[in-house]
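I'd like us to work through together how a protein chain folds, taking it slowly. We need material for that, and I hope you will provide a protein of your own picking. Go ahead whenever you are ready, and we will take it from there:
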Amino acid sequence: MTQIKLVNSDKVPGAVGPYSQALTALGLIFTSGQLPVDPVSKAMPEDVKQQTTQSLTNLGEVLREGGSDFSKVLKTTVYLADIKDFPAVNEVYAAFFSSPFPARSCFAVKDLPLGAKVEIEAVAVVG
């Protein structure tokens, strides 16, 4: 029987709905999308580059809590409120990952929670 473990970091804002920050199973961590909310101030920057930095910082904390890190990420999904932000998000994203870069999907969506411009989730190897 597969053991599923809850991952919950106190270094990122809590979930804004009925879901977990992440779950681990079968040697993998599956994160929920991380919004660009500062865990201390609960504020969200206006600039999409700053939002991307905060989303990825939050994602990194969840990965660490689950026993992983950016070097072990296999797949990310990036959600954008405006596809025109794609180049700016890529610029910041490239600073958090190195070759071989994770597989990735990126979608423009109608709206994101809390009026965010970006949300990022990942699947990574644990250990």
About this structure: The CA atoms of residues 37 and 44 lie 5 Å apart. The chain has a mean pLDDT of 96. The radius of gyration is 14 Å.
